[in-house]
């Protein structure tokens, strides 16, 4: 797979998603019912973050038991995490930031990957490594939409998935930006709902969000 085709594959995944829930799974037994609840609400592209001891096993279970879901791995911090994501069968990978070593490793694999950036210098490094689809993180804390517009000035070709501080109230504003292909956030599956097994509530939240954000 060429770098360009890898990027276009990721762009297609993100554009089909509109919203990508950022999932931090504390208990393995929550993984499959959570994925099913999200898919039932029209949210198929999922990011499982490598932030907990059960994250990798949870992602693997989602991939094998919920085939309708398009599962990616987030919080990829190094080449080992990237290799683990690929071995799990992830459809894409996302990092909160990017080191030269991680960018080099990602450029050498066919796993669609979005490095995290917050500054012009970080964006230049990502572009130099062949990644024009990036995660803008933390989006609101890094200056919000005004900051993104400033970055898009000298880099008009970038495609962005902003994450961090994005919720039901401001997702539409971010998606209205011409270089935003999807947004990421955790508001679709509150931790309290996951802990209590409120899968119907998560499905309802997803359905309402997708209905409000999809173009007429």
TrEMBL record:
<keyword id="KW-0704">Schiff base</keyword>
<keyword id="KW-0456">Lyase</keyword>
<dbReference type="InterPro" id="IPR000887">
    <property type="entry name" value="Aldlse_KDPG_KHG"/>
</dbReference>
<comment type="subunit">
    <text>Homotrimer.</text>
</comment>
<dbReference type="InterPro" id="IPR031338">
    <property type="entry name" value="KDPG/KHG_AS_2"/>
</dbReference>
<dbReference type="Pfam" id="PF01081">
    <property type="entry name" value="Aldolase"/>
</dbReference>
<keyword id="KW-0119">Carbohydrate metabolism</keyword>
<dbReference type="GO" id="GO:0008675">
    <property type="term" value="F:2-dehydro-3-deoxy-phosphogluconate aldolase activity"/>
</dbReference>
<comment type="pathway">
    <text>Carbohydrate acid metabolism; 2-dehydro-3-deoxy-D-gluconate degradation; D-glyceraldehyde 3-phosphate and pyruvate from 2-dehydro-3-deoxy-D-gluconate: step 2/2.</text>
</comment>
<comment type="similarity">
    <text>Belongs to the KHG/KDPG aldolase family.</text>
</comment>
<dbReference type="InterPro" id="IPR013785">
    <property type="entry name" value="Aldolase_TIM"/>
</dbReference>
<protein>
    <recommendedName>
        <fullName>2-dehydro-3-deoxy-phosphogluconate aldolase</fullName>
        <ecNumber>4.1.2.14</ecNumber>
    </recommendedName>
</protein>
<dbReference type="InterPro" id="IPR031337">
    <property type="entry name" value="KDPG/KHG_AS_1"/>
</dbReference>
């Amino acid at each position: 797979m060429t770098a360009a085709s890898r990027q276009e594959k990721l762009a297609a995944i993100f554009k089909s998603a509109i919203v990508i829930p950022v999932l931090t799974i504390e208990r393995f037994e929550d993984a499959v019912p959570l994925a099913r609840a999200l898919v039932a609400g029209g949210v198929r592209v999922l990011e499982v973050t490598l932030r907990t001891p059960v994250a990798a096993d949870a992602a693997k279970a989602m991939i094998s038991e919920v085939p309708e879901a398009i599962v990616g791995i987030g919080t990829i911090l190094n080449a080992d995490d990237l290799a683990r994501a690929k071995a799990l069968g992830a459809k894409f990978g996302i990092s909160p930031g990017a080191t030269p070593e991680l960018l080099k490793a990602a450029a050498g694999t066919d796993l669609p990957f979005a490095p995290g950036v917050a500054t012009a210098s970080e964006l230049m490094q990502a572009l130099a490594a062949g990644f024009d689809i990036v995660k803008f993180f933390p989006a609101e804390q890094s200056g919000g939409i005004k900051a993104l517009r400033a970055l898009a000035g000298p880099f008009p070709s970038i495609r962005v998935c902003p994450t961090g501080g994005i919720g039901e109230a401001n997702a539409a504003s971010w998606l209205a930006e011409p270089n935003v292909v999807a947004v990421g956030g955790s508001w679709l599956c509150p931790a309290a709902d996951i802990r209590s097994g409120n899968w119907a509530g998560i499905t309802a939240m997803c359905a309402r969000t997708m209905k409000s954000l999809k173009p007429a």
